[in-house]
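ugh ok fine here u go
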Amino acid sequence: MKVLFLKDVRPTARAGEIKEVKNGFARNYLIPQKMAVLATSHEIARAEGLRKAAAEHRRAEAAEWRGIIEKIKETPMKIIVRTGPTGRLYGSVTTAMIAAEIETAAGREVDRRSIRIPAPIRTLGKYSIPVQFADEVESKLDILVEPDADSIGRIEQARRAREEAAAADPTFDEALEEGDESEDEGNE
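structure:
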């Protein structure tokens, strides 16, 4: 079925384009959501005006995002997570978590699918994540993954336990020296 797209539907089409789509997709999703209409001769004549309006809308949106990006890049975004005693996360940082932080900082909605995490984030630290805010507007944002208050207590407790265990247990070299001394005493 040929339809004329009234809105950008990523990645299928942009507003003003005429494309052939599956009948069910058009009848059940695109047309009821008012994202597309049947491509009749009257609607095709409307297409040029839609293309111009959509292109202008994309330019304005891109300019607006560039301004927002400059503002939010000044400080890294903090994501507070729950961790185990080693500082490893229970699960991982998701694109939805990052999108929520960006929305809070930017004051605008961000599609979580536009965030591309190169590898799963499962440890604390600072990460640089590429985000595509609009067509031709992409930037890397610094994300700071920090533990929550309960996790800080567990990490500190585990660190103290390791230090106490290291102080109580002799190192390998110390154990060898003690072994040599006891052998010397036994030979006398």
